[in-house]
Design brief:
coiled coil; DNA polymerase, domain 1; four-stranded parallel β-sheet; hydrolase activity; alpha/beta; 682 residues; Rossmann fold; six-stranded mixed β-sheet; binds adenosine-5'-triphosphate; 5 domains
């Protein structure tokens, strides 16, 4: 798939998407998680791009939700699903599911939804999902204890591009290489020519290093895993509690993760811990060792009775000798014992097994009081320890990175599968919560709903009364005030929208004829002024003309065999709520009759809710079917309503019911006024 051919993908976005391993596959699969890994692409944008790609793949012209109210119904349907996701990712992923008029797209989602509906939403799985997020790529990593070295200017540029995490240095000869080895714990020489050169320090000759950058910078893998450690662990937990097949051995993955610290360093390695502590505690240990020696020596001096013969004293004084030589002569043994104690302390405190020789030299043999360490030796010791620590860390990092690198793709699949499960569980929960079934999606027109219960009603779902309703062609829906006419339109719109999203619908059974566009016009608030009235009329004019244009007259030679190219290709459903409020009652009945006739001729499916059903029928030149939501009667001033519309029945209006009640009351002492009034309704 050509990236730029996807609607909404320009050159800049295409360049960002090319950074992904396989952008074409991510687009083909509507894989929002992968798309959102491209630099600068948010999940919301990734969802829009995925939708564009899906439309391109299915040759879907879009435009299913043709009016504001139709779009609101789609948004409401989507909210019912996204409210049931645990992760933000799943909510965004669900946004790629949109109502479409193209069967191949609808079938694709239906297959997914059907399998999703077999999932068991389990509290432990939902809980585990709460810590799962899409994997994120760590930002730039900078490694300062290693460098690359080469004699070749071209290789220098290649190395900078391939491994930007470390410095690259140009060296002319082994001497310069040796200088580098003094500044860095590890030097990786890229030229074969250096093989066999004997240099002190950790200098490796690795001519293939640029092909395996992760062997030079294992941090690349480690920071990725460290950054995503908790997400991967959570995804593993989801697999465990949901009993999903994992793409790799979870125990191996988890134990490798256990060796990784949050900052990407290796944890749990005793030798590395020893060396790290030794570097950190060196100064403190040296100073304690000094105190140990001095304490010992002070005590020894205090206890010492020094007897010096006069001639000895004289000779010392004549030679100008100081206390040191006295100390050397008289306390040599004590000094040796004190220094030995200091050395032992230093070696033991820092567990300096392999560097014992250097460590012991930190305290000189020559007697002095107070005992003092040698700065030079301690500095050398620090250098040795630091180098040993860094080398050990790098080695352990390499080993761990080697293990983890092999599991990188599996870890990504693990997280993707957990996130995808969240999408499926949202669909399963939606279907469960609203007793949904998969509708039949047919190529014949109309819609038939059995036991439909709209979750969009303002009453708790348990209190929603089931509605049966089927419509073919154009119909006026009449009924008492607050009988549920608007709610029925909402139900038809919702079932139709969900069916075209490929999702289950809240009904016991449903058959939905495939359409390309849903035009749903909500009730207008109050009478429209002339301008707004004209604009509304134009909308219907366009709709009718549009439908007309799609269904050329068979006599004009445009159509040949079979159905006309237009209507069957792009069938529409039109739902309109109380269009009468756009203007005065007499005029609006005529207008509605005209629109219905035109839509009927053009084989649209249409339901017009109106209190003017009788007038519309009278104004229409063709037979227009009328259905009615009937009141079973008034009970304590409240209407008892049969929510399912009765086919072919003009429902009595609320005023008619009230007049009838007054006429039937037996208290008609108004000279037959109520009975006469009732007669006007016949
Ligand atoms: N199937 C149903 N189950 C339970 N309650 C319902 C159902 N349908 C409608 N209702 C209740 O009736 C109220 C009125 O419904 P609705 O607005 O659809 O009636 P209407 O016939 O369009 O009214 P109006 O003629 O005043 O426009 C709803 O707000 C809801 O509380």
């Amino acid at each position: 798939m050509e990236l730029e051919s996807v609607p909404g993908v320009g050159a800049k976005t295409a360049a960002a998407l090319r950074e992904l391993d396989d952008p074409e596959a991510a687009l083909r699969d509507g894989d929002v998680a992968s798309l959102a890994r491209a630099p600068g692409i948010s999940e919301g944008r990734a969802a829009r791009i995925a939708r564009g790609a899906i439309r391109a793949e299915h040759d879907d012209p879009g435009g299913f939700t043709a009016t504001k109210r139709a779009r609101e119904i789609h948004e409401d349907a989507l909210s019912l699903l996204t409210e049931r996701t645990v992760t933000d990712y799943a909510a965004k992923r669900l946004e790629t599911i949109y109502p479409s008029g193209v069967r191949s797209r609808i079938e694709e989602v239906r297959a997914f939804a059907e399998s999703a509906m077999t999932r068991e939403p389990d509290a432990a799985v939902l809980d585990a999902l709460s810590a799962v997020e899409p994997l994120s790529e760590p930002g730039d990593v900078r490694v300062r204890d290693r460098c690359l070295a080469t004699r070749d200017a071209e290789r220098y540029a290649d190395a900078q591009a391939a491994i930007p995490e470390v410095s690259v240095e140009v060296v002319d000869d082994a001497r310069q290489l040796a200088e580098l080895a003094r500044s860095y714990s590890t030097v990786v020489a890229l030229d074969e020519a250096f093989a066999g050169v004997d240099i002190e320090g950790d200098v490796r000759v690795e001519p293939n290093a640029l092909e395996e950058p992760e062997s030079v910078v294992p941090e690349r893998v480690l920071t990725f895993f460290a950054r995503n450690r908790d997400r991967i662990r959570a995804a593993a937990e989801v697999h465990r509690v949901a009993d999903l097949d994992a793409p790799c051995d979870l125990d191996t993955l988890l134990s490798a993760l256990d060796q990784l610290d949050e900052d990407g360093s290796v944890s749990g390695d005793e030798e590395l811990d020893r060396l790290t502590t030794a570097v950190d505690d060196l100064d403190a240990a040296v100073s304690t060792a000094e105190s140990v020696a001095n304490d010992h020596l002070r005590e020894a001096i205090e206890e010492q009775d020094v007897t010096i013969e006069g001639t000895d004293l004289l000779s010392l004084v004549e030679r100008g000798a100081g206390v040191d030589s006295l100390l050397q002569r008289e306390l040599a043994d004590e000094y040796a014992a004190a220094v030995e104690k200091a050395r032992d302390h230093l070696v033991d405190a820092l567990a300096l097994r392999d560097m014992e020789v250097t460590a012991r030299r930190a305290f000189p043999d020559e007697p002095a009081y107070p005992v003092e360490h040698s700065e030079d030796v301690v500095a050398r010791l620090r250098e040795e320890l630091t180098a040993a620590r860094d080398q050990r860390a790098t080695r352990r990092k390499r080993e761990l990175a080697d293990d983890l690198a092999e599991m990188r793709e599996d870890a990504a699949s693990l997280v993707d599968a957990a996130l995808e499960l969240d999408v499926e569980l949202a669909i399963a929960r939606f279907a469960d919560d609203f007793d949904c079934v998969m509708p039949d999606l047919t190529e014949s027109e109309g819609v038939a709903i059995e036991g439909g219960r709209s979750p969009l009603l303002d009453v708790p779902f348990e209190a929603v009364e089931p509605v049966d309703y089927d419509v073919e062609g154009v119909t006026v829906l009449s009924g008492v005030n607050s009988g549920g006419k608007t709610s029925t339109l909402d139900l038809v719109a919702l079932v139709t929208t969900l069916a075209h999203m490929g999702l289950p619908v809240p009904a016991e059974a449903a058959r939905v004829g495939r359409i390309s566009e849903l035009h749903y016009h909500a009730k207008t608030q109050g009478t429209l002024d002339a301008g707004a009235f004209e604009a509304t009329l134009r909308e219907f004019g366009d709709l009718v003309a549009d439908v007309d244009h799609r269904n050329p007259d068979p006599d004009d030679g445009a159509a040949t065999d079979g159905p006309a190219a237009g209507t069957d290709d792009r069938p529409v459903m039109v739902l309109v709520d109380e269009l009468e409020s756009i203007t005065e009652p007499g005029a609006s009945a005529k207008i509605m009759a005209g629109i219905l006739e035109a839509l009927g001729e053009r084989q649209a499916t249409a339901i017009f809710v109106s209190h003017l059903a009788r007038d519309i029928r009278e104004a229409a030149e063709t037979e227009i079917s009328i259905d009615g939501i009937e009141a079973k009667g008034l009970e304590d001033g409240e209407l008892r309503v049969e929510r399912s519309p009765v086919k072919g029945k003009l429902a009595r209006s609320t005023p008619e019911l009230i007049v009838e009640k007054l006429a039937d009351d037996g208290t008609d002492d108004s000279d037959g006024f109520y009975s006469d009034l009732l007669g006007k309704f016949e």
